[in-house]
Specification:
The chain is of the alpha+beta class. It is built from 2 helices and 6 strands; from the N terminus they run ββααββββ. It is rod-shaped and about 100 Å long.
Amino acid sequence: MKVCSCGIQLAGNARRCPHCGKRFTSPLTAIFAVVLGIACLGALVAEINRPPEVRAKFDPVETSIGGCQQWTRTHSKLAVDDFVGEYQISKAKLPKGVYKVGLDYRAKGAGLMMHSWCEYKDAGDHDHMVLVNAWSGVE
């Protein structure tokens, strides 16, 4: 038997007092509600304190190097083992928005030192590069 705060005696499994309307909550339910509330509050505080997402700055040289590596893997006469060097070839002689990059790599099996160079042009949207010219081989 339960006794409500209004003084009415109730059955042990009663969920609500028919006289005053008070609701009875089990201790387990109350603990679960408190833990859930703390977790929600913590998530809210973490979201408020999170720094704004910063879009990665477009780097045409890095994009050109990545594109040249991909071109070299698919167009080299010998299979590429690993890249050992990457560099930008002098931009002083190139028109604005044009990037020439070079790669040094070893051929799989033979171990020959190979070279590639690729020339890319900015597509104009500051997000993409267009391959203009490429070469791969032994100098």
